[in-house]
Amino acid sequence: MKPTYLTILSAGLLLPATGLADVLSQDSFSAYPVGAELPGQGPTIAGYTGPWVDIDFGAGEPAVSASSLGYTAKAGSTAAYTAGLGDKAGFPSHVGTDNANQVGRVYRLLDTALTVTDTTAGVRYLSFLYQNSNDTALGYQMLDLYNGSTADANRSFTAGITNNGGSTGTQYNFGANEAYTSTGVAADSGVHLFVVKFDLSATAASDTITVWLDPVLGANDPTGGVTVTGKNMHFDRLALSNYDNANGVAWDEIRWGTTFNNVTIDPVFPAIPVFESQPVAYTGEVGDTVTLLASALSSPAATYQWQKSADGVGGWANIGGATANTLELFSSTYADNGYYRVVATNANGSDTSDVVQVDLAYPEPAIITQPVSVSVEEGSNAQISVVASVLGNPTYQWFKDADPISGATSDTLELTNVQEAAEGPYWVRITDDAATADSQPTTTVDSAVATLTVFPQWSGLVSHDPFDTAGGYAAGALASQNPTIAGYVDAWAITNGFGPVSPVVSSGSLAYPNPLYLGSSGGHVSTPADATAINATNAGRVGRLLDPRLVVSDATTGTRYVSWLFRTGLENAAPDPQVYQTLALFNGVLGTDANRDFEAGIAAGDFSTTNFAFRLNNNTGMVGNLGVPSDANVHLFVAKIELSSVAGGDSVTVWIDPALGSGNPSGGVTVTGADLTWDRIALSDYASDSSAWDEIRWGSTFNSVTLNPNPPDDFAAWIGGFNVGSLNGFNDDADGDGIKNGVENVFGTNPSVANQGVTAVAKTGSTVTFQHPQSGSPASDVIAAYKWSTDLGTFHASGAASGGTTVTLTPALNTPSAGSTTVTATITGTQPAKLFLTLEATQP
């Protein structure tokens, strides 16, 4: 008589009705590719939902290995336990506590047929084969049942080897609600059969669990076993776990059922192959690795032959070499599109799987590196690049806004002698012609937008950050403050992990003794002292973003200078060996030391000296020892940064307390061979004495960052800015245009270049008008006034009367307004025959 078959839980697994109708699930790992890691795989198996999922317990994962675990009947058994269909899941062994190299944990959700809630009642059985390599007695090698997540608190049941909960790792044991019980069987390297009986009640704390290890088979519940009562079972996922100084471990034949026998006695497989899992259609892109997977049950085991058809109806042809239950199409091509099926055959007959379609389209070009925004000086060159991966031959077209750029057809956009008009958004369209070989249209992709910012060439003092309380800093923690200062963006920010205490702004600038260096008035930044290593109470680090003018990229060239005043409190007799008090320039996150490309100050541990020093590229081989022992004095640091677009072509020279007034001084310490990039500045002080900074200046010359940034505004300072040689006196006429230097200052004109002076003289009735240029910032020690005369002998002030005549000139001088000024002379009283007007400049 032929046996009757029925479908169990829509899995496609057909089992005889006789005695096995209550098998709920059988996971023999038969549908998994041999040798592949378990996470990510999700063949359709009754009782499970979705794929296996990795958990953060190490980078190693279980792999499916050929051949099932071979279980030999133990003493007293009346029937052998036959292995499954040819594979098992196993972890390698490892040594060490939880870390990135240990083998880890994976889990898979259970479907509703296997899920247990607080209200589930009745009897469930679970069985599995288990083998431990038994290299060491310690570790965690368990099959686990969790509810909600794989957090330990959600672990409802577990069985295998563990030293958790006071249990010993030298015996096989199990846990229910995190209370562990030994089976009394010593751990070894043999294959063992675990059978678990869950007797479930809807009443709280009324569930009973019995575990047998290698029980007698064939007569339903055997005697013996270890029972625990008063439990609350609830679970919705199953996990395989191996970590914490664990041996290698393997599992196989995970079965769920409603009786002892249907999870311990092998099912009778059909004589003719029947597919328990079907292939799944694949939609993707040319170049993908396509995997089709199917599995058939039969006795004897089936062989496989994959077939392909153009339309899925007829014309089926065998695929050469495709004789496993898995078909893999590596680096797939457009020709792999079509319909697939597999035929499973044994001596008794064959079965054909479902037909599935493989649908592959040509992918868009893949952008590996998007274009990055660039900031450059006016007149310099700029590059914006993209890195893309294509299957065929790529072509490129760059755009500015929506307009294509003529000739810009490579992966790098080259812009030369950029001017302000070049500012704006740039992007590139990448086209791949690979599809044309199959008469398909080309594919394209548009990159992200990169913005080009153009700023004026560096000249003089570019940025001056004096920490002046009058300039927007309030006394208090620096990290919360955000005054507008040229060269900086946004507010100061505390860096996590370097202590919560921010530097504070304190009144009174640092006093530097060199008379040519004038500090600001009103504030400096300081940090309190601390005497321990990095922890929650030490002083910390703050940083601030630089604006594009101060940012340095790989393409930045030229010479830049930065200077600042620095003082260490040096409360200790000598700096702590771990003292760290530096001004640093980072590219990217401040908390990542690898992003630190320049730093200077005291860093005994990093600089290998208690002298003041500096370092480039966070590299101990690029330290410049300034040779000055650290002390409690105020010191001036000046760094000259020479930037090259050639790799390793950047160099830095640092002076401490240099001579001032004549450009680059002699001496200094130079370190070469660097690659410098940065976009933010940081002030760091931890595990150290208190420290203070002031007067952070950026500029294009040594003098611009060291001499007084608030120069005198008198006539001598003004005339000193022009090439007039010895004709620099107030009453000299350096350019010979008849206008004395003092009047040129009032006019705001160049005393070394002739100019017209007074223009547009006109008389209408009793009114005379004329025009002249006027400075918006005349020298502080120059006084100017309009005067009038009728005889060139005596001149009178505006509004004064003489001989019955009064002349009033408007507007009044000494209220500067840059540009061209129209002056009106109004005559009242007696109208003179002649009128002479003059502008007189004097020094008090």
Automatic annotation (TrEMBL):
The keyword Amino-acid biosynthesis does not apply. PROSITE patterns: IG_LIKE. Residues 1-21 form the signal peptide. Pfam families: Ig_3 (PF13927). Gene3D superfamilies: Immunoglobulins. Keywords: Disulfide bond, Signal. SUPFAM superfamilies: Immunoglobulin (SSF48726). Residues 270-359, 365-444 form the Ig-like domain. PANTHER family: CONTACTIN 5, IG-LIKE DOMAIN-CONTAINING PROTEIN. This is Immunoglobulin domain-containing protein. It comes from Luteolibacter arcticus.
